[in-house]
């Protein structure tokens, strides 16, 4: 059975490489490895909120109930981890940041150029504004039709991946989306996140293998 699984993975890997969907240095997997720093934080629905701060015309604070009432989107993406695994055709559901703008909940100031994701226990992840507003970034609450599990970021996480065939999007490693997300800070200047300050590459382009700075 293990040999059959290994053969299946090799076939998947060869197929995805031929299709141009497997970045250099990556290995295909059908599992979903759990990687994060520190313990899983508890979730208190009554105390939880989601905030938008920084270079916006008005600060925004939403309770968990209010967040769940926002218009929702689904996206299917390939995930590529800096630890070299790639998982294909993952299905996510949640809220696009662009939707928050279209609904008038967020109005960006002209100087907004970067977005800092602030998560539980002061964890941060940074991205350029154009990626956060693109189709391959999502404020995700569900994975594969089910609410996120605690180890994968419940109740909310930032997710960034690669949409097959979308050459117009910049594809970055999976660490650029923060688990247990609590706020977005729009900023005029970039601020390195947790892993970038530990030596990871700030741009994290998967096709250029930008793993370490």
From TrEMBL:
Transmembrane segments: none annotated. Residues 38-195 form the Oxidoreductase molybdopterin-binding domain. InterPro entries: OxRdtase_Mopterin-bd_dom, OxRdtase_Mopterin-bd_sf. It comes from the Bacteria. Coiled coil: none annotated. This is DMSO/TMAO reductase YedYZ molybdopterin-dependent catalytic subunit.
């Amino acid at each position: 059975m293990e040999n059959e699984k290994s053969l299946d993975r090799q076939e998947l890997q060869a197929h995805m490489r031929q299709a141009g969907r497997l970045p250099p240095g990556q290995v295909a997997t059908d599992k979903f490895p759990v990687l994060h720093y520190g313990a899983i934080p508890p979730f208190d629905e009554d105390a939880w909120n989601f905030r938008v701060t920084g270079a916006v015309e008005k600060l925004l604070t939403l309770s968990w109930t209010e967040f769940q009432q926002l218009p929702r989107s689904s996206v299917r993406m390939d995930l590529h981890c800096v630890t070299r695994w790639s998982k294909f055709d993952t299905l996510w559901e949640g809220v696009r940041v662009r939707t928050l703008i279209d609904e008038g909940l967020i109005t960006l100031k002209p100087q907004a150029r970067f977005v800092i994701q602030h998560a539980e226990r002061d964890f941060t992840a940074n991205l350029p504004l154009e990626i956060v507003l693109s189709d391959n970034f999502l404020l995700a609450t569900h994975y594969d039709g089910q609410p996120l599990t605690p180890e994968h970021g419940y109740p909310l996480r930032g997710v960034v991946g690669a949409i097959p065939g979308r050459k117009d999007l910049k594809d970055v490693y999976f660490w650029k989306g923060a688990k247990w997300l609590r706020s977005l800070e729009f900023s005029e200047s970039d601020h390195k996140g947790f892993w970038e300050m530990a030596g990871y590459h700030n741009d994290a382009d998967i096709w250029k293998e930008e793993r370490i700075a």
